[in-house]
Specification:
The protein is an alpha/beta fold. The chain has 3 domains: 96 residues, Roll (Ubiquitin-like (UB roll)), CATH 3.10.20.30; 98 residues, Elongation Factor Tu (Ef-tu), domain 3 (Beta Barrel); 127 residues, Nucleotide-binding domain of ferredoxin-NADP reductase (FNR) module (Rossmann fold), CATH 3.40.50. The protein has 6 helices and 19 strands. The strands form 4 sheets. It has a 6-stranded antiparallel β-sheet. Strands 17-16-15-14-18-19 form a 6-stranded parallel β-sheet, sandwiched between helices. Helix 5 packs parallel to helix 6. The chain starts with a strand and ends in a 10-residue tail after the last strand. The protein binds FE2/S2 (inorganic) cluster (FES). The site of FE2/S2 (inorganic) cluster has 13 residues, from loops.
Length: 350
């Protein structure tokens, strides 16, 4: 049995099977509704239930509080329809980007390199074997299937390289203590020649085309998709101003600075500002403090007027950045694209 789901105010209708949630059903039918974690953690897919009933798969009450659920809010990535007809009001949508640019599907890739970047970050280079011509938009991510789990256990990683016709994917992976996938990257658990199944591409963070200035903000391993966006701007020899703020605790947590400088050298107007949040590193003569404050300062003082913003990092960084940009500096929400990353540990339902 399937249910009929209608979306206000865009006037779209889809079918949703009883074994899928509304977001999965939308993907299957080619719709690109705003999403992030797809596991009830990040709030990106929060919508309002106007008619009908749904049951929610496990989710975090940080993403949807009890009182919000009682008022009628829901998470599309967790909502399984209980009634034949459901009407949902989309609270966030991009009218120019409603259809999936690239179909979401399964693939296989071979590991070609595992490169340590910092004490806890690794760059994984993959060569896609299937599907032929796998395509994505810079800023998107894939789910890697944990070996031996038959696709039941997955971890999401953003592409850190811009789309290329030769099927090369680079991912920046942070190793977490006890992380089931990231643990494979230690002690040769994953080595060149191994293959990995994946599903994707997912994600709606994308850079708005045009001439407006670009503000890129990353925290920790959130550098992955930001690097892909920077690579794409560099490949296009973009002339729009680009500012990249990258936050880390210590100088040793800041990888790829030479690579970032080399990409920036291909742009007409580029500045890279690494920002340390810890007090250590006595010889550090760069910026210190919270990366969102440093990034917002160039908008506040008019150095970067009316920017489009792309940001990836932990939820507190993204929330602070968007609050200051929208609340204090008048940046419209529609000009801010972001990806809040959640770890598998954080994804354990409340
Ligand atoms: S995509 Fe639904 S809560 Fe993150």
């Amino acid at each position: 049995m399937s249910s009929r789901i209608s979306f206000d105010p865009i006037g779209v209708e889809i079918d949703c099977d009883e074994d899928e949630n509304i977001l999965e059903a939308a993907f299957r039918q080619g719709w690109n509704f705003v999403h992030g974690c797809r596991e009830g953690q990040c709030t990106a897919c929060k919508s309002f239930l106007l008619e009908g009933d749904v049951s929610l798969q496990p989710y975090s009450t940080h993403a949807l509080s009890e009182s919000e659920e009682a008022q009628g809010y829901t998470l599309l990535c967790r909502a399984m329809p209980d009634s034949d007809e459901v009407v949902v009001e989309l609270l966030h949508f991009d009218p120019d980007n409603l259809r999936l640019a690239h179909p979401i599907g399964d693939g296989v890739a071979a590991v070609t390199a595992v490169e340590p970047l910092t004490g806890d970050m690794v760059r994984l280079r993959l060569q896609v074997r299937e599907p032929e011509g796998f395509a994505y938009t810079a800023g998107q991510y894939v789910d890697l299937h944990l070996p031996g789990t038959d696709g039941q256990e997955r971890r999401s990683y953003s592409m850190a390289s811009p789309p290329s016709p030769d099927g090369v994917l680079e991912l920046v992976v942070r190793r977490y203590p006890g992380g089931r996938f990231s643990g494979l990257l230690e002690d040769g658990g994953l080595a060149p020649g191994d293959t990995l199944a994946f599903t994707g591409p997912y994600g709606t963070m994308a850079l708005k085309p045009g001439d407006r200035p670009v503000l890129l903000v990353a925290g920790g391993s959130g550098i992955g998709p930001i690097l892909a966006l920077l690579g794409e701007l560099a490949a296009a020899r973009a002339t729009r101003p680009v500012r990249f703020f990258y936050g880390a605790r210590r100088a040793t947590d800041l990888p790829l600075r030479e690579e970032i400088a080399a990409l920036g050298a291909q742009l007409s107007d580029f500045a890279f500002v690494p920002v340390l949040s810890d007090d250590g590193d006595a010889d550090w003569d760069g910026a210190r403090g919270l990366v969102h404050e440093a990034a917002c300062a160039v908008v506040g003082d008019g150095t970067l007027a009316s920017p489009v913003v792309c940001a990836c990092g932990p939820p507190p960084m993204i929330e602070a950045l968007t609050a200051v940009l929208t609340g204090r500096h008048g940046v419209p929400e529609s000009d801010i694209a972001f990806d809040k990353f959640t770890t598998a540990a954080a994804a354990v339902p409340d």
